[in-house]
Amino acid sequence: MAYSKNNKLEKVYAARSHEERRDAYDDWSTTYDQDVTSFGIQLPYVGASVFARYVKMGESRILDAGCGTGMHSLPLKLMGYTNFHGIDLSSGMLEIAKSRHIYDSLKQMALGERLDFADDEFDVTYSIGCLAPGNAPPHSLDEFVRVTKPGGLIIWSTHAHINEQTQLFHKHRDALTRARDWEIEFETAPFVSMPNGDQNIKHAVYVYRVN
Ligand SMILES: C[S@@+](CC[C@H](N)C(=O)[O-])C[C@H]1O[C@@H](n2cnc3c(N)ncnc32)[C@H](O)[C@@H]1O
């Protein structure tokens, strides 16, 4: 069956400001999980597998940045990880996340701006499906580095197919490596993240250790 566009997703892609994006996700929140599940979303499985390979159980304070409905932290919580703290732009998405009882705290914050956390507050920053054109911008990574402890991990995804917009995320991660702010530990091969959705969209999941 041919992929047909989802008008809620198109509204997200069309957003030109934090406010428009927040409204688009608020509007999508109640059917978001159902829609991305119908696209065959792979990110929760790949993200959780990578996380479980690199993060020891039980000792980490975890920031889920762009937590959405909690779809990516849920499998980790079920496996026994604890101490999740979620932030997201959309109060609608945060409401769904709250109903899942995964998080010790949930706050509305915009990635791309200074986060309301102290330096080195987290052992792990986990951000899956959020840093991409139409969502949080590349310089969100700077704040991930600031709020994650030296020696801590930043596990995140972005688009792995390269075009004018997606390359900005790769340029930024390379700049942080050149500045010795972090070092790469692992990256997955690129994969089609929504096999029943837009086949052109590939993601990869990255693990960086903060210096
Ligand atoms: C594609 S969803 C993935 C969410 C989540 N990881 C999940 O699957 O449930 C992207 C999420 O990022 C949030 N988001 C987009 N831009 C953001 C920004 N600048 N700051 C904070 N959150 C943002 C959206 O509100 C949405 O919940």
Characteristics:
211 residues, Rossmann fold, binds S-adenosylmethionine, alpha/beta, 36% helix, 7 helices, 8 strands, globular, eight-stranded mixed sheet
Q: Explain this structure to me?
A:
This protein has 211 residues and is an alpha/beta fold. It has one domain (7-210): Vaccinia Virus protein VP39 (Rossmann fold, 3-Layer(aba) Sandwich), CATH 3.40.50. It contains 7 helices and 8 strands; from the N terminus they run H-H-H-E-H-E-H-E-E-H-E-H-E-E-E. The protein has helices at 7-14, 18-38, 43-54, 74-79, 91-99, 140-147, 167-178; strands at residues 62-65, 84-88, 105-108, 122-127, 148-159, 182-187, 191-192, 202-210. Helix 1 (7-14) packs antiparallel against helix 2 (18-38) and helix 2 (18-38) packs across helix 5. Residues 18, 21, 25, 66-72, 88-90, 93, 110-112, 128-130, 135-136 line the site of S-adenosylmethionine.
Present the secondary structure layout.
Blueprint: H1 7-14, H2 18-38, H3 43-54, E1 62-65, H4 74-79, E2 84-88, H5 91-99, E3 105-108, E4 122-127, H6 140-147, E5 148-159, H7 167-178, E6 182-187, E7 191-192, E8 202-210
Parallel strand pairs: 1-2, 1-4, 2-3, 4-5
Antiparallel strand pairs: 5-8, 6-8, 7-8
Helix pairs in contact: 1-2, 2-5
The structure holds S-adenosylmethionine.
The site of S-adenosylmethionine has 22 residues, from helix 2.
